[in-house]
Request: fold
Amino acid sequence: MERHVTLGEFIIENQKDFPYAKGELSALLSSIKLAGKLVNQQINKAGLAEILGKIGKQNIQGENQAKLDLIANDIFIDTFRNRGEVCGLGSEELEDFIVFDDDIHREAKYIVLIDPLDGSSNIDVDITVGTIFSIYRRISKEGSPVTSEDFLQPGRNQVAAGYIIYGTSTILVYTSGNGVNGFTFDPGIGSFFLSHPNIKFPKKGNTYSINEGNYIHFPKGIKKYIKWVQELDENENRPFTSRYTGSLVADFHRNMLLGGIYLYPEGTTSPHGKLRLLYESNPMAFLTEQAGGKATDGSKRILDITPKELHQRVPLICGNREMVEKAEKFLKEG
Ligand SMILES: O=P(O)(O)OC[C@H]1O[C@](O)(COP(=O)(O)O)[C@@H](O)[C@@H]1O
Ligand SMILES: [Mg+2]
Ligand SMILES: [Mg+2]
Reply:
């Protein structure tokens, strides 16, 4: 019988990829695995536990926070606070960075940025949502105060990134710079098992994911790209298929497995698009590149953008390399 590898075993087995590793990154990935299980449990019973709906308050982005946004946020903060791998955290649901300033955490090496619940508009209608995470090694010396510089590193410095998708099944997908792997949660056993080894974008894709409801606000190049994907050309498998769920994690996961492109461009009403660089675009860009795809803001590599603030937004175009380059070409021509 084929041996099913658990996520825990896989993390330990792959620790050897990190010459300086003393196990903290492995422990941190295990903390994320634990928090993911706790969030999954809440989501699965959301309709029964009166944790659907909004809390009647807005987060720093001006979005009405869902109860599950905060529940997921608290689960991750408590998990990191109770374990010693993280010295600082940034979250979509928190106005500012959190620094865990106590004897244990002050010596910790890692900074984590999270989108505790991605696709919040889909929570109450039972459509797939997710959690997105991004991990950096701090720049400041262990034991010294954590600075904003530790948080505002370019995406290319990420040591690991991934997401947990709470869909038909719950899957944790991550990279630590050595390919992308996916692990499916078996609720009967309570463990994640390797189900999607070494994920790569298929050679060709023919799915595009964009909120066409914003069409009038899009730059000319994006409007032209949408027209182009909808034209008939059997050689190029066009027209492409449109798929957009309103959950970045869900659209990204599908496009990475089946081939496709996700676009959230800038627009007249949102000059920098909607998605946040630190806890949405950077982790997805790291995964994209590790799976053989491309991720840009329309011209610049996402991972080379130097962040200026925690909730900074950037346009995101990511997916099959060929498809992204086509969109960039239309944008350049304008
Ligand atoms: O409704 P819109 O404007 O198309 O935005 C949908 C996009 O916004 C997001 O919901 C933003 O993420 P949050 O739900 O974490 O705020 C993405 O998941 C999704 O792709
Ligand atoms: Mg999000
Ligand atoms: Mg969110």
Remarks:
- The chain has a mean pLDDT of 94.
